[in-house]
Design a protein that fits this description.
Blueprint: H1 3-6, E1 19-24, H2 26-29, H3 38-53, E2 57-62, H4 65-73, H5 82-105, E3 111-116, H6 118-122, H7 124-139, E4 143-148, H8 155-163, H9 177-186, E5 191-196, H10 236-248, E6 252-257, H11 263-268, E7 275-277, H12 283-292, E8 297-301, H13 303-311, E9 321-326, E10 333-337, E11 343-348, H14 353-358, H15 367-371, E12 385-387
Parallel strand pairs: 1-2, 1-5, 2-4, 3-4, 5-6, 8-10
Antiparallel strand pairs: 6-7, 8-9, 10-11, 11-12
């Protein structure tokens, strides 16, 4: 048994996690790969809804469309042909999103369907559009429900060609695990929770090794991951790859059982549930790039905006800006200055200089009236802001 993996580590505090991506695997959504696990699913929806109502931002990545489509079409075995699987996804996706829409609505929370393909996050411009959509939904207090668009996705075809040596390039999403990690990175999430049918990773297979221990904290960069076991389920490699991607981008990941009662609340309260993969020190590198990048202009803010920015997790809203300096484009680095000219911080601006000037002193709900469109409520969102001169 790899004893180094069994050594206890220190979990990062999760209670302050504001933006959380939750991924539900097929074995969590269904009982037997076909029938909905309604009791378990409703409990998880209730947990997520209550977290949303508490002020946290929740993004849900859910598997299960193909399984539900199989049930509706009367298929007893998972189809082998790509076309039939895509047909099942097309049927099942409607049932899946209808379920979530109805379930979240019972708690006064709006669910929003977002279907993605590999190319949506592989192309920079399309990835920025996806981020804008997701951030806008979060600002509107909705819960985005994401899934790979299996009815048109060519992921499985590409993977088959890759296995035959006919295709090269980065791996595909991988059963929504990779999708959830890339979404978490794209929206600068604080926490990624991968819920499956086991309670974490083990030092060995507990079914055959009586001394096997659940790994509480895992460094995914360790060279001895070959000894890690899921405890009796497949697909754990994709979860480890997802955790590695998230960790390298500063996102904490937890792999846990979706059948654990109150699993999300227990994680946030500090209970040692599942296996935690802490983030590497990479978010600091990203913030350092913002702090050191050449500035393209400046936003001059009033005292109220300074107090809000320095007092918590506030973003810079148009109403707090009194002047715009320079000619910058959307996504460039600008300085945040107070009325005396002192630099209070730096950030990536969501609108170009012309739009910022048009929005001076305006309320966020006036953005669309002024510009004719609305991407963000804030000129600079908190996760793209570095305070200090």
């Amino acid at each position: 048994m790899p004893s180094d993996l069994a050594q206890p580590g220190t979990r990062p505090p999760l209670g302050d996690s504001l933006r959380i991506v939750v991924k539900l695997g097929t074995q969590v959504v269904t009982q037997d790969g076909r029938s909905l696990a309604l009791g378990r699913l409703m409990s998880l929806v209730e947990e997520m809804a209550r977290l949303r109502l508490e002020g946290r931002q929740i993004l849900l990545v859910s598997s299960g469309a193909v399984a539900l489509g199989m049930k509706q079409l009367g298929l007893s075995e998972r189809p082998r042909s790509l076309g039939l699987r895509q047909a099942c996804a097309a049927v099942g996706q409607g049932h899946l999103v209808a379920l979530y829409t109805s379930a979240f609505a019972q708690f006064g929370v709006t669910a929003a369907q977002v279907l993605l393909t590999e190319s949506d996050l592989g192309d920079r411009d399309r990835a920025l559009c996806v981020r804008t959509t997701l951030m806008r939904l979060l600002e509107l207090r909705a819960v985005p429900v994401l899934n790979e668009n299996d009815s048109v996705s060519i992921r499985e075809l590409v993977e088959h060609r890759r296995a035959q040596g006919e295709e090269t390039g980065p791996p595909a999403f991988g059963d929504n695990d990779g999708l959830s990690a890339r979404v978490a990175v794209g929206v600068d999430a604080d926490l990624l929770v991968l819920l499956t049918d086991v309670d974490g990773l083990y030092t060995a297979d507990p079914r055959t090794e009586p001394d096997a221990r659940r790994i509480d904290v895992l460094d995914v960069e360790t060279p001895r991951l070959g000894g890690v076991s899921s405890g009796g389920t497949g697909g754990m490699l994709s979860k480890l790859e997802a955790a590695r991607l998230a960790s390298r981008s500063g996102v904490t990941t937890v792999i846990a059982s979706g059948a654990t009662p109150g699993v999300l609340q227990r994680l946030l309260s500090g209970e040692a549930v599942g296996t935690c993969v802490p983030p590497a020190e990479r978010r600091a590198v990203r913030r350092q790039r913002i702090a050191l990048a050449p500035r393209a202009g400046a936003l001059v803010v009033n005292d109220g905006a300074v107090a809000a920015l320095e007092g918590g997790r506030a973003s810079l809203l148009p109403i707090g800006v009194v002047a715009v300096e320079g000619d910058f484009g959307e996504g460039e680095v600008v300085e945040i200055r107070d009325g005396s000219g002192r630099v209070r911080g730096r950030g990536l601006v969501n609108y170009d200089a012309r739009a910022c000037r048009a929005l001076l002193g305006r309320h966020s709900d006036e953005i669309e009236d002024v510009l004719g469109w609305r991407g963000y409520d804030a000129l600079v969102t908190r996760d793209n802001l570095v305070l200090g001169s």
